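To the wet lab folks,

You asked to see what we're planning to order before we commit. Fair enough. Below is the target structure as tokens, and below that is the sequence we designed to fit it. If anything looks off to you, flag it before the synthesis order goes out.
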């Protein structure tokens, strides 16, 4: 991506800032196993960036399993309990490579940063890893009506930053998130996930490879 100039950055959380995607996978895997639903890391690609509710729907469809609304809600709760239990020890060392450097670089250049995550645990996670103060704007799964792949989460972020989508780079690790950002009119960098490198405008294997100087 050449010759574009931007005024703000929007970050996905799980898989871009923090290495929590595997924890999500293991928690879902434990639910799938309970119902003898075959579920592996490739199946999990479809879940990345999707809301908790949509993720469970996909898993149940994979196994052709039908359950009551009550059981569905119990499973959502159980998955979240297992997930939260697995990230209790999360700390700054779980930030993905290049995150702190880029947030500091953005701060020093007065480029505002926002979070655009599907997770309802986003605030708690940012605080566990100690980077809350870097974000001017936080949009998470509690604040949107339409989750990714709908662009709402990023459009709300842009609105709150006071910028238009074509003034912002979004960093994403999931197909659903790249679609959300592209449909919203943002520039999108795919981070670390080779499965989505062709859907985005550009690919970096980690944020260490992204040089903000080229875009401001
Ligand atoms: P929660 P992101 C997404 O976060 C995750 O990629 C996805 O795996 C998860 O199901 C979703 O958040 C909901 O998370 O259960 O914590 O509300 O990648 O959009 O930051
Ligand atoms: Mg993600």
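Sequence we intend to order:
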């Amino acid at each position: 991506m050449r010759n574009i100039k931007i005024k703000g950055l929007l970050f996905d959380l799980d898989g871009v800032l923090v290495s929590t995607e595997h924890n999500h996978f293991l928690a879902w895997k434990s639910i799938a196993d309970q119902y003898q639903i075959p579920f592996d890391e490739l199946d999990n690609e479809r879940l990345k960036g999707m809301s908790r509710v949509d993720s469970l729907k996909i898993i149940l469809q994979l196994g052709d399993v039908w359950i009551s609304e009550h059981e569905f809600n119990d499973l959502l709760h159980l998955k979240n309990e297992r997930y939260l239990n697995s990230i209790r020890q999360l700390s700054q060392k779980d930030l993905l490579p290049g995150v702190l450097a880029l947030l500091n670089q953005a701060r020093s250049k007065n480029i505002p940063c926002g979070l655009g995550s599907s997770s309802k645990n986003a605030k708690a996670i940012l605080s566990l890893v100690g980077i809350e103060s870097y974000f001017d704007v936080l949009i998470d799964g509690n604040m949107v009506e339409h989750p990714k792949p709908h662009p709402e989460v990023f459009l709300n972020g842009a609105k709150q930053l006071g910028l238009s989508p074509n003034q912002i780079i979004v960093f994403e690790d999931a197909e659903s998130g790249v679609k959300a950002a592209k449909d919203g009119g943002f520039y999108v960098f795919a981070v670390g996930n080779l499965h989505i490198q062709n859907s985005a405008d550009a690919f970096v294997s980690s944020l260490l490879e992204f040089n903000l100087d080229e875009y401001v």
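Structural context that might help your review: The first helix runs from residue 21 to 34. The pocket of 1,6-di-O-phosphono-beta-D-glucopyranose (ligand 1) is lined by residues 12-15, 24, 47-52, 55, 80, 117-121, 141, 174, 177 (CB under 6 Å).

Thanks,
Computational group
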